[in-house]
């Protein structure tokens, strides 16, 4: 029997009982589609996080006050309560490293902002002109903080889009004066509306020079220092230099934490990748269920087609060939089922993409391959038993049975 | 037809087609196993996390500086201009129904003793902290009820710090340096272990006012207040809010009742457990398609039997019931097997990895079994209707 | 008992109309023993199915026990079948996975008769048909004759007034066929109306009244109706 004949024979018997064939294909395709959609979601979340991170800046090294033994996020670091604070001098000293290009010191606090009768609570970020480029932020109107001496406490501020809207409405705001705490600041720029990004929303921020922030909050410490390495290759050097410079400045004490942003990124990447795998694996259980269904149906078919098998044997078909016929059926079933499932999954992924345009959902190629492999694998694995059963039938008995 | 007869007839076909019934049930069983296993782990984690949080008791209110912002993040901790002070904490003590008040401050500093140093968490607290958080002192005593504004430089060690710095010697009465200042050890806490990643044993406790000075902060991070068990939460919240508003002139603080926080946390974890269970449900769906397939085949195979039953006076409804019953029996038994298997694997996992908390939620188990039966019912309907609608004469002719 | 007036049954096969019965007029009295003979395709089985309320006439009227049963709905038909009519088939039609006893019990189960009463009736039937030692055997463990005896026992378990047998001996050898016929004829003695379809003139000839069918019509009756 030639291959083409085997396939034709198998597809003929599948077409013979259409409902059952369709149902088995449905079962297979639900499994494949589930794997595709769920891994697509996981992968989408992963890419989303990576995009968000890289939109926060490239080649970044972050210096935090306080030291934690593990490179994770510890409570002290989170809360910034440490005995020795990071100062502006520390920040400027970092520029001595040849691996470090730019820095932006950050200090943060909350304050009341008011303009004429309107007022509200805002988060105030103290930084320098470099922040705009290091953090890849976008200015809407006017100018950012003026470049120049890190210590100059000019009374200027840049408003987040939402703050500007709440204080000024449609009125022009550039050049106007607002009150922050007990000081007056001139508005020089407005941030472009941006929306949420990694839990940090510039729309509701007010940015002022870091020295002004220190005066406003009556502190001298920094919340963190953003350090931009000169190139990708210089990141590690920048990190080591920062650690060393600060250790020397802090009398030999290593009381700061320096992390590479891409290290944090890699951690997230790993976690989300593992999550995607787990979710895909759970969905793949349904493929095993579909495989068992195929086995079940094939076993029933064998007992229903006893006479047909007996006849084939009587006509001179060897056992191997009969086995092949059943294998062909299983492969056809899982093949059509997987393709249908892929199509279904793709539709699902597209739909999710439509509903959440910001989420870059796409099933990763390995998940697609794994789903296809598993569905073919289970299809073939679970047809071994029925096929052997068919091949072993005694032709005389098979023909005699009515 | 009487109900026991319905059961008898459906089980007879179940037994006659053992292998296929087993395999069909297996499909459902795997689905239910997945659901039960996943929800068991989810529920175990949920209970673990909630227990970690609620071991301190639930009649605690946390007071933090700053108003909660729209996005839920409290900016007060970033060193706001507004602070809550130790005097605020003192004032709270005079409110009715308040049991204990604990001003608190946290940071990270170096602790030195005899040339050894260790960087640890430094907690600034009032003398009532152990009462609120059910912490126990192993030797010595906790911080005394000193003048809250100018307390003596006394320190209580977490068990790990004591072990690391004193290595078995009695630390009571020794002097050690916390962030450069000299403190006298008055007590060592009992080991408490990690709570959600915070190692409470790798900690030293000093008076809150001294911590403020050490970390150079203008105000407290938090005040913990515990209230009497039989008092209504809202009235306590109201009286605290009124008092602090009067002292500050406006509402620049946030009250977070432990009870509420636990509720929110609990419902988030519930949703996660449910979502994970739903993932397992996909297999259940595929199992349902399996029942549909097998029942469809059974109708074709048993056409002449259906014809016979009709000739013997069976009504359409009776035939319908027989086939529906069979589908439901398949899924119910499969579901039951899955329940046992899922709960069993969960327990086995727990034995193998004791760190993994599992708990099979019986509500979920019942729901899973119910949904298995429902799936059987849904999958059985179409084939059963087809069986019932068969023309008896035609059916008798089929062979 | 059974009155058919101008009954026809037309099947639509594709866009063709096949008339299986054409204008049948037939009266059968209670306790009659009637055989129906005729070539293959002449409509014998169709007539039997009509009488057994498995089917409905395309036109004409059918009265059973004086009541018009021509247009009963499914539920009513099933109730009449259950109470008044017993079937015996050429192919036995036993449920393969059930024991002989349970096969006999089936009509009683479907009718919702309490278990205790059922057991007694089934035991009696097994005894009557010489199957007492075969009660727990499944059909594939029985001979053809035993199978047909189970089928007859089942057909009589509800004490029907009419027993319809479509070639009951068709799958049996002559000796066994005779045995089965004797059992059926004993029922006639108990005032059961027996209608039997057969190809075998020797068997058909035993009935008091013999109908010959050709092409959907009764062309010739021999023997006489006991009463009309
Ligand atoms: N369901 C049906 N659809 C179409 N035609 C039918 C159907 N049932 C019976 N017929 C036709 O009606 C005619 C009578 O059939 P019936 O089965 O009554 O014959 P019969 O006399 O019992 O034959 P046999 O002796 O072979 O059993 C035949 O021509 C047959 O083809
Ligand atoms: Mg016939």
Summed up:
With 399 residues, chain B is α+β, with helices and mostly antiparallel strands.
Low-confidence stretches of chain C: none
> Which value, in Å, is the CA radius of gyration of chain B?
33 Å
Element pattern of chain B in H and E: HHEHEEHEEHEEEEEHEHEHHHHH
**Beta-strand proportion of chain C:** 25-35%
Helix residue percentage of chain B: 40-55%
Number of helices of chain C: 7
Instruction: Specify the biggest β-sheet of chain B.
Output: 6 strands, mixed, barrel
Task: Classify the secondary structure makeup of chain C into a structural class.
Answer: alpha/beta
What form of chain B results from the Cα inertia axes? elongated
Task: Give an overview of the whole structure.
With 402 residues, chain A is of the alpha+beta class. Chain A has helices at residues 3-16, 18-55, 75-79, 88-93, 131-134, 161-168, 210-217, 235-249, 261-304, 306-314, 319-355, 365-381, 384-392, 395-400; strands spanning 60-65, 100-115, 118-127, 139-142, 156-159, 177-180, 183-191, 205-209, 224-229, 256-260. In chain A, α1 (3-16) packs across α11, α2 crosses α11 (319-355) and α11 packs antiparallel against α13. Chain B is of the alpha+beta class and 399 residues long. In chain B, 55% of the residues lie in helices and 18% in strands. Chain B has helices at residues 3-16, 18-54, 86-92, 129-133, 159-166, 208-215, 233-248, 258-301, 303-311, 316-352, 362-389, 392-397, and strands at 60-65, 98-113, 116-125, 137-140, 154-157, 175-178, 181-189, 194-195, 198-199, 203-207, 222-227, 253-257. In chain B, the strands form two sheets. A six-stranded mixed β-barrel of chain B has the order 2-3-10-5-7-6. The longest helix of chain B is centred in the C-terminal third of the chain and has 44 residues, at 258-301. Chain C has 228 residues and is α/β, with parallel strands linked by helices. Helix content of chain C is 34%, strand content 29%. Chain C has helices spanning 44-51, 74-84, 100-110, 115-128, 144-156, 174-189, 201-204, and strands spanning 2-13, 16-28, 33-37, 59-64, 67-68, 85-89, 162-166, 193-197, 209-214, 217-223. The radius of gyration of chain C is 17 Å and the shape is globular. Chain B binds chain C through residues 1-2, 4-5, 9, 12-13, 15-16, 304-305, 307-318, 392-393, 396, 399, and chain C through 49, 52, 54-55, 74-75, 78-79, 81-83, 85, 87, 89, 91, 93, 95-98, 102, 106-107, 109-112, 114-115, 154, 158. Adenosine-5'-triphosphate binds at residues 11, 13, 18, 20, 40-46 of chain C.
